[in-house]
Backbone:
């Protein structure tokens, strides 16, 4: 079974601020906010949610098919995905713009401030679903607004179950549009902050969302693990302790790659999430979103 991974491909410029953002921002002065953070280290990594999710899914033994857009500087990224054995036939390369770029500052508490330039991602709506019968699962991740709308509608029309993962794209949509996404999706995956925003905008609680047609609502809680909501029942799946906390960039995407791996195989949702917690702990011990290694035998998957 192949899994369609729709979302952004981006270059991540990752920096580290050795202090705490909270110590540099005065709450009573936010209306005239003007701050500068000294970042002694800087790296450029392959990133974007589609690339990160596909990386983990492929490393676990899944078959991701990436549906995304790259810019005129994306040749090396395309070569990388192909070298990893990831299907890139549905990757659009736009020649008159750059690949999406994320500029990320992480502080000593692993809080992050990100500036994002969408670039070629704004053209991702030009890509349609591949004409193949082996795609039985998908994820709609953060992407251009029109691309996310088209992808969800196309997948629903084709009868392909998918995870709706709005991520950083959630603020682009009002309550009515989000309710339409949810009506088309089979699962919803959000972090705890996004869950609160989703509930506020739709007027639906997590309990109410889970009692709908959805097969599950997944709320990630960082180191505390994950909540799984199914038909009004909430199950807390504890987190996995990381050997080292190095870089949180891409942890949510690594989790989702593992989630898709389990869903591909028909696992119970709680088992999918438990694997996601383990993979997230592996990822946070590595810099960047696509540098962690996965020992399938050690995970009992070989």
Residues:
């Amino acid at each position: 079974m192949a899994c369609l991974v729709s979302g952004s491909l981006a270059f991540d410029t990752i920096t580290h601020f050795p202090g705490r953002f909270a110590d540099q921002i005065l709450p009573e002065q936010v209306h005239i906010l003007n701050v500068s953070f000294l970042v002694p280290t800087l790296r450029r990594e392959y990133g974007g949610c589609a690339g990160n999710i596909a990386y983990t899914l492929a490393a676990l033994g899944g078959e991701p098919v990436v549906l995304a857009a790259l810019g005129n500087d994306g040749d090396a990224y395309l070569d990388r995905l192909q070298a990893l054995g990831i299907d890139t036939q549905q990757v659009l390369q736009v020649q008159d713009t750059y690949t999406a770029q994320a500029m990320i500052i992480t502080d000593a508490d692993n809080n992050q401030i990100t500036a994002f330039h969408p670039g070629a991602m704004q053209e991702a709506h030009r890509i349609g679903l591949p004409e193949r019968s082996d795609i039985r699962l998908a994820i709609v991740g953060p992407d251009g607004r029109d691309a996310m709308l088209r992808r969800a509608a196309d997948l629903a029309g084709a009868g392909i179950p998918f995870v709706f993962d709005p991520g950083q794209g959630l603020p682009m949509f009002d309550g009515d549009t989000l309710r339409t996404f949810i009506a088309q999706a089979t699962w919803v995956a959000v972090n705890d902050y996004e869950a609160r925003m989703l509930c506020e905008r739709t007027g639906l609680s997590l309990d109410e969302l889970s009692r709908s047609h959805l097969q599950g609502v997944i709320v990630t809680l960082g180191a505390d693990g994950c909540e799984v909501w199914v038909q009004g029942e909430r199950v807390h799946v504890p987190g996995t302790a990381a050997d080292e906390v190095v870089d949180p960039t891409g942890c949510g995407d690594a989790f989702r790659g593992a989630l898709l791996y389990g869903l591909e195989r028909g696992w119970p949702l709680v088992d999918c999430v438990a694997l996601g917690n383990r993979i997230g702990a592996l990822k946070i011990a590595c810099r960047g979103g696509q540098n962690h290694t996965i020992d399938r035998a050690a995970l009992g998957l070989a």
